[in-house]
Amino acid sequence: MIDQRTELEVINLPPGEMYLARRPMMLQTILGSCVSATFWCARLGIGALCHGVLPVCPDPWNPRASVGDGYRYVDFSIRSLAQTFAQLGARRDEVEVKLFGGADVIPVLARRLDRQTVGSMNAEIARQIVESEGLRIRSFDLKGTRGRKIFFDTGTGEVLVKKLKEHEPDPERSSLTPSFLRA
pLDDT tens across 19-57, in order? Predict the structure, then answer.
């Protein structure tokens, strides 16, 4: 359980970045259509958070782009974290992955154009990449129409989700219980 009395270092993760923690700390970010994935391995005591802005990394990759530029993309970020955790010795079956975000914060545009929104595409690609990497999604809070602020305790693996505006979560879009929004 996240203990607010504990003095954890707090890292605010901006869009398009990733952070790997090798000790307990609080990683937090704010999401709209973006998608974040948390990765946690209790045995190794490591946790990571990524904040992807767009669903798919361009192919071919711009040769002048840095690896850090890839963290703007949901697919790149999740694949990179899966590879990093494997390199650090985590087995796929012991990595807890949780997904958040992908909201349609401007849903009127999507209905008018009769096409998928960036939020929807981000959520779908996140699920696909986690599955293709042989990882299991432990919990999620995806899609909907409200943004979220997430708080990830890398010491316990727990994630708290604060909806930016009150509403009842759609049970088909979240594995979290409506009363707690605790992952």
Answer: 999 999 999 999 999 999 999 999 999 999 999 999 999
* Domain extent at residue 143: 10-163
Q: What is the dihedral angle through the alpha carbons of 52, 117, 99, 90, rounded to the nearest 10 degrees? A: -50
SS3 content of the chain, % helix, strand, coil (to 5): 25, 30, 45
For residue range 86-119, list pLDDT tens digits in order.
Answer: 999 999 999 999 999 999 887 555 455 667 889 9
Residue 87 belongs to domain with CATH number = 3.30.1330.200
Nearest one of 32, 181, 38 to 120, comparing CA atoms: 32
Question: What are the tokens at 18?
Answer: 């990733």
Position 178 in a domain: no
| Residues 51, 14 contacting (CB under 8 angstroms) | yes
Is 182 within the bounds of a domain?
Answer: no
97 domain-assigned: yes
In a domain, 147, yes or no: yes
User: Chain-centre distance of CA 177, in angstroms?
Assistant: 18
Task: Write the DSSP symbol of residue 124.
Answer: H
